[in-house]
Write a structure and sequence with these properties.
Blueprint: E1 3-10, E2 14-20, E3 26-33, E4 37-39, E5 42-45, H1 47-62, E6 66-74, E7 79-82, E8 92-93, H2 101-110, H3 126-133, H4 135-139, E9 143-146, H5 147-156, E10 161-162, H6 163-167, E11 172-173, E12 178-179, H7 181-186, E13 196-197, E14 202-205, H8 208-214, E15 221-227, H9 228-235, E16 245-249, E17 253-260, E18 269-272, E19 278-285, H10 288-296, H11 307-312, E20 320-322, E21 340-342, H12 350-374, E22 381-385, H13 392-402, E23 405-409, H14 415-427, H15 433-441, E24 443-447, H16 451-472
Parallel strand pairs: 1-6, 6-15, 10-13, 16-22, 22-23
Antiparallel strand pairs: 1-2, 2-3, 4-5, 5-8, 7-9, 11-12, 14-15, 16-17, 17-19, 18-19, 20-21, 23-24
Helix pairs in contact: 1-5, 9-14, 10-12, 12-13, 12-16, 13-16
Length: about 475
């Protein structure tokens, strides 16, 4: 009977569970969506919905087979306070929640040299915000956990904070592997964070109670896991400096580049990889996939994402769209950014809007990649993962805008498959990083740029920059 490695990814829009064999080859997968409650700068989720989705999906995916190990990746930094039983004491504050602006600025005064900047996205500021605005919830809590940490706690009974999530947060000192001492002294709420462990650490085993709830084998190893970016990097076979840029598109759009430990590029996101001495340099647009979903919902009778229709339209399209529908991250870090659509006329169709949304995301990627190149990191290939990579039209648009080949890995199941690989690495079931690299080399499809379209999109870049600058006035 096949013995499984199980990967769980707690995404912004859904949980996905992937089972692989001991070699990391896909055996089964399933996903389940859940809502985000948004109001102004708030973006909250019910963490129990994550667990309910995990329980439903793992039974389906495991299907009575033996699980050797499970690892969890997740949206980050998303934080939820839990009591001694592991139950949430209030809703989780997702990475999208931008209410803790004042707290982030105060933390920046305490630790002005943090690699990750003064923005609520980076998570740390959410802790003093909870202390100020949800004091009862924090007082009832034993720990404040990351999204993956919440599932790890439910599976194993052990509370930890993996180092890829910790390193993504404001005020983390990468040299010491801990939060800055001055910050810990100044902000008592940070004491609610559990011990920091390596992403590859085996922190416990699946309890009998969790086994009964999930169908996962009791006693299976539970690996700390990490942010979804490390799962996508593993799925793409990126385990060392010099690999391709990984593009992970779901609710948001994130690019991931393996760089030397300690790299700093102002305005970008920095964290650890699960591989020694390697960091991840990350760019991010908040609502890339969410914008596609929004446009698609405008015409409910038709799926506007149809590849053949989009690729028959003249490109670049008549419209230019800035897809910052809920604030923006790199490089401007402006929570007040909003979408801009230029060029609409009475002749504009719903397909034109969809094309503009895909082009707008690609133009934003091109802007960030240009900065990465200026920092000394060449980009000559992109590996596309996540739900957005299913669109051949979007992938071709990215190739044409970026002027480099865009590849789809044959695995193609996103961070959850990388999480399963992480479970294999941690337990020794996958005994070599070469096996991870080989998975990344297996391609499902490649998209080659059209030089004429690349030149045309380059001319559109200046206009896109002008429209983007309008958002800078919304501060």
């Amino acid at each position: 009977m096949t013995q499984l490695l199980l990967g769980i990814d707690v995404g912004t829009s859904s949980v996905k569970v992937v089972a692989t064999d001991r070699a990391g080859t896909l055996v089964a997968d399933a996903s389940q969506r859940y809502p985000t409650a948004t109001a102004g700068a708030a973006a909250e989720q019910d963490a129990t919905a994550w667990w309910e989705a995990v329980c439903a999906l793992t039974r389906q995916v495991v299907a009575g087979r033996t699980v050797l190990a499970v690892a969890v990746t997740a949206q980050a930094p998303t934080l939820v306070p839990v009591d001694r039983s592991g139950s949430p004491t209030c809703a989780a504050l997702t990475w999208l929640d931008r209410r803790a602006t004042a707290e982030a600025e105060r933390i920046a005064e305490i630790v002005p040299h943090s690699r990750n900047g003064a923005d609520p996205f980076f998570g740390t500021a959410k802790l003093p915000w909870l202390a100020a605005h949800r004091p009862e919830a924090l007082a009832a809590a034993e720990h404040v956990l990351s999204a993956n940490g919440f599932i790890v706690r439910r599976l194993s009974g052990v509370a930890v904070l993996d180092d890829t999530t910790a390193a993504l947060m404001q005020g983390f000192d990468d040299e010491t592997g801990a939060f800055d001492a001055a910050l810990l002294s100044a902000e008592d709420s940070l004491a609610y964070l559990p011990p920091i462990v390596a992403a590859r650490a085996i922190v416990g085993t699946v309890t009998l109670e969790a086994a009964q709830a999930t169908g996962i084998t009791a006693g299976a190893s539970v690996v700390a896991g990490g942010i979804d970016s490390i799962g996508s990097a593993l799925e793409a076979g990126v385990v060392e400096v010099g690999g391709p840029l990984v593009d992970m598109t779901g609710f948001s759009s994130v690019t991931i580049l393996a760089v030397p430990r300690g790299t700093r590029v102002p305005g970008f996101i920095h964290t650890r990889h699960c591989v020694a001495d390697v960091d991840l340099l990350i760019t991010a647009q908040v609502t890339a996939g969410a914008t596609i979903d929004w446009v698609n919902g405008l015409e409910r009778a038709t799926d506007l994402r149809e590849d053949a229709v989009l690729l028959q339209l003249p490109r670049p399209g008549e419209l230019t769209m800035v897809t910052s529908l809920a604030g923006e991250r790199t490089p401007g870090w402006n929570p007040h950014s909003r979408g801009v659509i230029d060029g609409i006329s009475l002749a504009t169709t719903a397909s034109d809007l969809m094309l503009a949304a895909m082009e707008g995301n690609a133009l934003a990627l091109a802007r960030d990649i240009a900065t990465v190149r200026e920092a000394g990191f060449p980009i000559d290939r992109v590996v596309s993962t996540g739900g957005g990579s299913a669109s051949r039209a979007w992938s071709q648009i990215k190739a044409d805008v970026l002027g480099v080949r865009v590849d789809h890995p044959a695995s193609g199941h996103g961070a959850a498959q990388g999480a399963a690989m992480l479970a294999g690495i941690a337990t020794g079931a996958i005994d070599s990083l070469d096996a991870i690299r080989s998975h990344g080399r297996e391609l499902e499809a490649s998209f080659t740029p059209d030089p004429l379209l690349t030149a045309a999109y380059a001319e559109r870049t200046a206009h896109f920059a002008t429209l983007s600058a309008l958002n800078d006035r919304r501060r």
